[in-house]
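Cross-posted from the bioinformatics board.
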Amino acid sequence: MSELNEHRAGKLHGIWALTNRELKKWYKAPVIFTLSIIQPILWMGLLGKAMNIGAIFSSGSLDKLMSNLVLTPPLTSTQTQQLGVFFQGLQTSIMQNTFNTTDYFSFMAVGMIAFTALFTTAFSGMSVVWDRRLGFLNKALSTPVSRGVIVFSKVLSATLRSMFQAGIIIVIALAFGLQFGASFSPLFILGVFAILFLICVGLSSMFIAITIRSTRIETPMAVMNLITLPLMFASNAFFPTNIMPSWLQTVAQVNPMTYTTDALRQFLINSTTDFAQVARDFAYVGIFAVVVATIGIVLSWRYLSK
Amino acid sequence: MSEEVIKAEGLTKIFNHNLTAVDHVNFSVKHGEVFGFLGPNGAGKTTTINMLITILKPTEGKASVLGFDIAKQDSDVRNVIGVVPQEYTADEDLTGLENILLCADMYGIPRKTAKERAEDLLKLVELTDFKDKRVQTFSGGMRRRLELACGLINRPKILFLDEPTLGLDVQTRTATWSYIRTLKKEYGMTLFMTTHYLEEADNLCDRIAIIDHGKIIVVGAPEDLKRSLGGDVITLGIKEDVDVTELVRKVEHVKDVKKEDGTYRIKAEEGEVTAPLIIEALRKKGYTVTKLSLTEPTLNEVYLEFTGRSLRDAEESREAFASQRITMMRARR
């Protein structure tokens, strides 16, 4: 045992070991794993099917309107039919213009993918605090593993988890009636995961960077509560931005969630895919991810040890 | 003259600009010895260790470990040392073996070598039968042994142990001591440890540094320190509520008298000759001796001599601390 530790590994050694450590806590615990699959199903059912905006324009509401309408002379049955077709067209046109698809559920389900990415990564800050409190962080810091790797393994594990959950969301959404857009091609699924990878790296780096110095578990929770909902609703995840008030539109325009959701919709449900817009989405989210991840790693050099 | 493997000069750590945890300490550790930091809670022991293992940056001063500067060559230092921290840092959701392999990965040790070493280490700390059990199910002693195994995975030249027997029962403590002796004897490893336990320091350490309020008060081999007190210690109690310090001091051979909670600690060159003389002197004045004991100086006497306080108070708070920690561990599950 007297010889020196002869294994001087590269700068990135240990990254998979540390990432896998976090993932194991998830996939080796049947309860947590099952819950993480049930949770998106619940959300999808509640938000997607309960907030069914398309149903507002359903024939039911039209019939009521018609029965209250007293015209002289009364409409002929042909005219009633024509009016019915007109309203049908109006519904389709409003839905198409507002949501870019006639089916709100499809619109929402895609927003849900982004939502899941946001919520899963939001917990990444907590694991830093746990590791600090339980002493694991100190142990990791006393080994030659680089500080950046310690932080990046957390980013990576949160990212992989979110991507897995997002994949499940897509499958469930399909089962619940998500309709792919006219221009959808199976290759686009790769694009979906690419943009998800970028946003998850960015978001989890952000949550970790914010809570990297905190020693109390309450801090990341408060941060989560403060940030996640505004990020979600000041974006196009559940509602298009062009019908928001202008100040909110401004917020939505700098929100990376908007670009993520847009790219997801372009890939999955839009009838025509605007590749120029997709490229812009990727550029924006990509820059966000690189900048925030860099900040996270720089902070980890400074602040992981006091 | 042995090689100095750790050298600290004016090492200082000030937290938040006003709390001086470690105050300009100087010491050196020789190759192959067990060096102990002895002191109460909050004396700065853990802070010193954390600076040496490069997870805390010193505010002032410098130190080197195997010739590597702890501030500038921190990753070189981390590569050649092993650390057994005070807390149980193993991941509770992983098994014992998985924890050791995780440590190996953090040192960049190839999987094949890591597995071989893990088996050896599990055997050394007698955890082979439990290697596939989750750490959650481990007792305190098993966790401590697992920490030891993790700290040895990179075959360190120096092993740092922070309170290696904190909160352990007597049996496990004795076992831990024997592992430490094995490491020293068979592998020629240098060990740096902190402890509250006087008997641990006495039994295990080749040299100790008594540290209090962030300052090193004295450094030396336990035997030398005890000898340096020069004589025996007589503990005396009397029935009457009067101060007899001056009276006792005048007795022949008595070197020093200290009064502490109604009992007197008397240092004398030849205890067995002096004790009767003291009794005689007191009886002449009409005082009744209720208690008298004669001891050769222990490390506690050394501690008392140099810090003016007994370590017993510190030990009590240590036990409270350990039980509090165990409660916390339970709460987490």
